[in-house]
């Protein structure tokens, strides 16, 4: 009887925890990225190390009071995109000028004294870039 219990207990003791991973989908031209199933941080410099020229950012909430906070990679106090949505139909969209590169960082656990970023099932972020990313 003890031998039969030993193996399942051993497996439970050494089971690896699930690793969090957003669903990140780039278009073939690398000019649009959609992030969904948001459950961890995301760093734009993984694809564009020198930053990206952002055309727009759109947040589609999954529930009431979803908060999206996208900060500067080098200074978390700078928020390049920050919205709190009333409900799942309250999509937020923001255009950006073409003149500078931005290093975006999605801090999944971003928080301060009055709010904490909140991403629920069904929410997504779509970032569109200007075509002149290489110059």
Short description:
The protein is mainly β.
Written account of the structure:
The structure is a single chain. The chain has one domain (20-129): Jelly Rolls. A hairpin with a 5-residue loop joins β1 (23-26) and β2 (32-36). A five-stranded antiparallel beta sheet has the order 1-2-9-4-7, with no helix packed on it. It has a four-stranded antiparallel beta sheet with strand order 3-8-5-6, with no helix packed on it. The protein is mainly beta and 135 residues long. Helices cover 10% and strands 32% of the residues. The protein is built from one helix and nine strands; from the N terminus they run αβββββββββ. The termini are far apart.
Topology, please?
Elements lengths: L1 H13 L8 E4 L5 E5 L5 E2 L10 E7 L6 E6 L6 E6 L7 E4 L8 E3 L17 E6 L6
Antiparallel strand pairs: 1-2, 2-9, 3-8, 4-7, 4-9, 5-6, 5-8
Highlighted features:
single chain; 135 residues; mainly beta; Jelly Rolls; 5-stranded antiparallel β-sheet; 1 helix
